[in-house]
Amino acid sequence: MRNDYKIRPRQALKKGGKAFPDLTGDGKVTFKDILKGRGVIKKKGGMIMDESMAHENMESMKMEAQETKMERKGFKETKSGKMTKKGKK
Fold it and tell me: How far is 31 from 24, CA to CA, in rounded Å?
């Protein structure tokens, strides 16, 4: 493993630079402001998918796959959302 930091000194940060802007408008400069500045978080109207949203998305995808499987086996979805055998009422 090379130790380049011993060979070349690291460049120091500028002293007395401008303060980072408050991009979220909450009155404080937080990590969220940094992420917005980098473009990780969309600036207008974007949402971050948290764990609960990801779980709901996975559940809906599983249900959709199950419905497709049943449709291939000869079932159809009624107006109420129930799956019934084709030809039955």
Answer: 10
